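Propose amino acids for all 429 sites.
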């Protein structure tokens, strides 16, 4: 099928709506220019693009963000009880007065703006590199936009075993904030770090995180995307995994009018493990899209994609997931599951699971289902005296728990379970 003809004015407009970032070093400017060229070549995303057929990108590319009144700050934000180093952003701008000192044993942390003006070899090699590689075979123009215009974020380098997580917290205060944030994470050989993220960030949010895990390194990533009802978000996670490395990522999404989470994971070393999981719970004008591309290019690697969506009152869920096993990537173990629980007849789930395999000694599977609450199980619980609403909530929690179990830290996993339970309690009708 021929690629759709793009309107260049749309691409020009999404570039123009973001102020040109402050001039950086020569290498950073070259990377920004390359990204700008990629965006101009592919054009802004449109509904006719194959990987946007289930999600209309227009709200993400419109000239101005729509009104999204911030909700009152939570009295107890997600991960607030976790002992972590906190870095706080307010409408996309780093707020040092609300943050901890950006220093911790075994971890180097620096604002993106400073890193782009310095000669940091690992940052030079990483910034924009994974994003550029992830444009093939699927164009990701909003990620290229991020590389071209991002001015705020952090670069994080784990040189040892981080004693506690790095917590990136995003606060939303302006009704029409339109924010671009970029993070780089490098995990050196044998090192480990946990990255936490939470908060709605802005009315419209574009975020890219590039993660490079060296041999025998480990990176665990957990995020909760905030509860503002009209929030728009497009996020991209690019991860490259070395020999015997371990990477796990989990995302919880509740509320938000439109969320598109893309993930691109590449195995470049043997015996590595890469898991990506998520669950979303949506009500009414809620559209949530997980688009994942995992490439196995090495021996004996394990990947998992586990996504659960709970939808009610006309909410829409989308999953597009692919496992590509290259020639020679023998002993690959790839598993993919996407499931939706529809709590009414008005909700909708669109799924496009894919396997593309060029090796003959692999164990790969994918599956996708959607359905209503199991009436037999519901009847069983009610016959034991469990009230209807409580029984339904129990079944929802059991349904999403396969994804929550992918979280490495038990305390953080229990925090996520608690937040899901609170959401269900608030929506008792």
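Proposal:
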């Amino acid at each position: 099928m021929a690629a759709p003809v793009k309107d260049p004015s749309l691409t020009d407009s999404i570039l123009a709506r973001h102020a040109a970032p402050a001039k950086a070093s020569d290498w950073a400017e070259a990377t920004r220019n390359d990204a700008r060229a990629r965006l101009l070549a592919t054009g802004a995303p449109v509904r006719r693009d194959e990987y946007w057929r289930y999600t209309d990108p227009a709200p993400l590319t419109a000239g101005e963000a729509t009104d999204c009144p911030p909700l009152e700050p939570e009295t107890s934000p997600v991960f607030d009880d976790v002992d972590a180093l906190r870095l706080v952003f307010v409408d996309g701008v780093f707020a040092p007065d609300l943050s901890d000192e950006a220093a911790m044993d075994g971890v180097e942390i620096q604002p993106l703006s400073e890193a782009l003006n310095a000669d940091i070899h690992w940052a030079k090699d990483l910034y924009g590199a994974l994003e550029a590689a992830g444009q093939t075979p699927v164009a990701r123009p909003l990620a290229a936009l991020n590389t071209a215009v991002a001015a705020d974020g952090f670069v994080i380098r784990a040189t040892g075993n981080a004693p506690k997580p790095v917590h990136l917290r995003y606060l939303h205060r302006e009704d029409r904030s339109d924010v671009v944030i970029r993070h780089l994470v490098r995990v050196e050989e044998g090192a480990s770090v946990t990255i936490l993220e939470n908060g709605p960030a802005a009315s419209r949010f574009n975020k890219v995180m590039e993660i490079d895990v060296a041999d025998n390194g480990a990176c665990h990533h957990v995020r909760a995307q905030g509860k503002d009802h009209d929030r728009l978000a497009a996020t991209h996670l690019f991860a490259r995994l070395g020999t015997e490395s371990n990477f796990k990522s989990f995302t919880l999404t509740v509320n938000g009018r439109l969320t598109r989470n893309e993930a691109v994971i590449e195995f470049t070393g043997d015996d590595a493990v890469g898991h990506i999981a998520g669950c979303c719970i949506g009500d009414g004008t809620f559209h949530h899209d997980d688009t994942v591309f995992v490439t196995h290019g090495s021996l004996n690697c394990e990947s998992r994609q586990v996504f659960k969506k709970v939808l009610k009152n006309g909410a829409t869920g989308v999953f597009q997931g692919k496992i590509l096993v290259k020639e020679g990537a023998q002993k690959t173990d790839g598993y993919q599951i996407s499931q939706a629980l529809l709590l009414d007849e008005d909700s909708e789930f669109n799924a496009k699971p894919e396997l593309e395999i060029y090796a003959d000694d692999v164990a790969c599977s994918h599956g996708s289902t959607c359905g209503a609450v199991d009436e037999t199980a519901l009847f069983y619980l009610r016959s034991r005296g469990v009230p209807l609403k409580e029984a339904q909530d129990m079944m929802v929690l059991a349904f999403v728990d396969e994804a929550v179990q992918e979280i490495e830290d038990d305390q953080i996993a229990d925090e996520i379970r608690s937040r899901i339970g609170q959401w269900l309690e608030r929506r008792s009708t």
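The radius of gyration is 21 Å. The mean pLDDT is 93.
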